[in-house]
# Entry
Amino acid sequence: MKTTDANSANGRMHPVVLTDFDDTAAAQNVAEMLLNQFGDPYWKDVRQSFRDGHISLKEYQEITFRNIKADRATMQAYVKDHANLRPYFRELWGFCQSNGIHMAVVSQGLDFYIQAVLDTEKVGKVPVYAVATEFEDGEITYHYNYTIPGKESAGNSKGFVVESFQKEGAYVFFAGDGHSDLEAARVANVTFAHRNLADFCDGENIPYHPFEDFKGILVAVRNYLLNTQK
Ligand SMILES: [Mg+2]
# Structure
């Protein structure tokens, strides 16, 4: 996994910004938006099985998207009209670009709808660590490239992605909202949390900053940079 060498010369850890996608980078849960529009009417029953702990997030997503009645282009067009990024995402991306800071989306969601939103918002170059999909003859094939060795069946791990950057000397700022973000919040250097993730962090005494949009992270990363340059 590539990171920038910016700021490593002074011996301090270089900042890396990682953000969840659905309900965090995006103002909406885009996966659920697609399932509501194109999915099998029973997709919420599958979600309940997942919430009750009977199936994994990976299984929930694969089952519900298997039954979807739309091709990739149709879903991407829908997303472009109905989803948008949260405020200050673009400003943060611009700041990171200007200062050689790696910023990326880390998601348990599917790459094609994430990319559609990023492209629409003119930030299509933001790297994405998500579930890679291939569409062929109406079937979706899923590829999980960020799994914990030995735990491949669980799908991608956000904690694994955070720790991969930290092994290269990164100081990781992470933002998220849900249960799949918890393992990242446990290991990130600075966590911004909202919705369920804030409750999970409270439950485990994980320190976090409340997240509403990306302005707080922009300020935090800028301050970190100022302090490490002193
Ligand atoms: Mg989320």
Residues 8-27+84-133+143-228 form a domain with the Rossmann fold fold (CATH 3.40.50.1000).
